[in-house]
Structure formats: structure tokens, C-alpha cells
Amino acid sequence: MVYVGIPKGQADQEEEVLKTIQDGDSDELTIKRFTESREKPGALWHIYAAKDTEKIREFLKKVAEEQGQENPVDHDPIHDQSWYLDRSLRKRLHQEYGVQGWAIVQFLGDVVFIPAGAPHQARTREAVHNLYSCIKVAEDFVSPEHVKHCFWLTQEFRYLSHTHTNHEDKLQVKNVIYHAVKDAVGILRANESSLSRP
């Protein structure tokens, strides 16, 4: 979080932000960062374990059906990013499916790391209450430990409609694997003579 702009002269905004942080299921230490340390909050994240993805997907489809919405085959309630799990939906997800995530308030200067395949949602203060403007810098990467999971995500994207924003292979996992192996082979060949010595 590289920037959080807080308008001056509007005292009631701090109370609204505090309520949002509390309603977001944030812990006491996070609340103290805002109330006592006077740090600037920019975004509220809810991150879930990758292993719970199917349960979350099933829950979102169920809620959509209850609201009379369609669940087209070539769309995905997680990848569509059309849902925000508010407090009541998060509570229901926990009660009905045993899924509970982590609430993280990202303050100015904080970095949030999201593990591969972990369903997540972020709401900036601006999106929730039109309070604080913020600028976040995001970077996607593929770590060796999670190549398999990243490849699985790429396969999920292939089944989305051709007009879906996530249909393309953003991670380029096959290219990452190819270039990693090519570089490793190049290094081994360059050092081949020193590796064969007793």
C-alpha cells in the first residue's frame, strides 16, 4: 500500500472506518493499530485457504440460486469477482461449510502476500464507504513450490467464457517452467567441467 489519502475535517469518517474494520472481523491488534497508533488503513482483505476453494464456489452458487440468479457453466463465482462476502455471508459460510478465512487490514506501507490459489477479496475504504483513496501495487508471480497449483488455476481459466476477463493465461505457467528448465540446463552445461571433478 503506497498511498492512503485521508480527507481533513470530517471527524465522522474515523468512526465509519473503525466500524468497517470491526465488522470485517479484524483482531484487536489491528484495531489498536488504527485507534492507538493512528496508522492509515487502506484496504480490508479476506483471504481463505486454497483447500476451501470448492466449498466457497459451491456456497456462492447456492446463494446465487437463492437470489434467483443464473449460474452459467462457462462462468465461475470466484473468478467472476461478482460477490463480496459481507459479515452475514462470511458467518453463513462458516456455519454451513466450516470455512473461515483471515481478515487483514492493509495499512499504508503494508504488504499482503496471498498464497497461490487462495480465494480472496479486498475492499478499499473507497469501495466500502467512499472514504479514503488508496494506491496499491500488485505483482503476480509463480513460485517453484506452487507451480502445480498455478497450473491447475490456468486450467480453470480455460473453461471460462471467451469473453471472461480471466479467460487468458495470465500466469503463463508453461512459459515459466520452460524458461526455468532452460536456465537450469544452461547453468549445468556452463559448469559441467567443474561438476565432473572428483
Automatic annotation (TrEMBL):
Q: Does the keyword Methyltransferase apply?
A: yes
Cofactor note (record): Binds 1 Fe(2+) ion per subunit.
Annotated GO molecular function terms are:
chromatin DNA binding; histone H3K9me/H3K9me2 demethylase activity; metal ion binding; methyltransferase activity; transcription coregulator activity
EC assignment: the record states: 1.14.11.65
| The name this protein goes by in its record | Lysine-specific demethylase
Swiss-Prot/TrEMBL cofactor(s): Fe(2+)
Primary localisation category: cytoplasm
Protein purpose: Histone demethylase that specifically demethylates 'Lys-9' of histone H3, thereby playing a central role in histone code.
> Could you tell me which species this protein originates from?
Herpetotheres cachinnans
The JmjC domain covers 1-158
Q: Which reaction does it catalyse?
A: N(6),N(6)-dimethyl-L-lysyl(9)-[histone H3] + 2 2-oxoglutarate + 2 O2 = L-lysyl(9)-[histone H3] + 2 formaldehyde + 2 succinate + 2 CO2
Q: Which domain of life is it from?
A: Eukaryota
Give the family per the record: Belongs to the JHDM2 histone demethylase family.
What does the entry's free-text domain comment contain? Answer: Leu-Xaa-Xaa-Leu-Leu (LXXLL) motifs are known to mediate the association with nuclear receptors. The JmjC domain and the C6-type zinc-finger are required for the demethylation activity.
State the compartments where it is located.
Cytoplasm; Nucleus
Task: State any GO BP term from the record.
Answer: demethylation
Any transmembrane segments, and where? none
Q: Which GO terms describe its cellular component?
A: chromatin; cytoplasm; histone deacetylase complex
Q: Which UniProt keywords apply?
A: Cytoplasm, Iron, Metal-binding, Methyltransferase, Nucleus, Transferase
**Annotated Pfam families:** JmjC
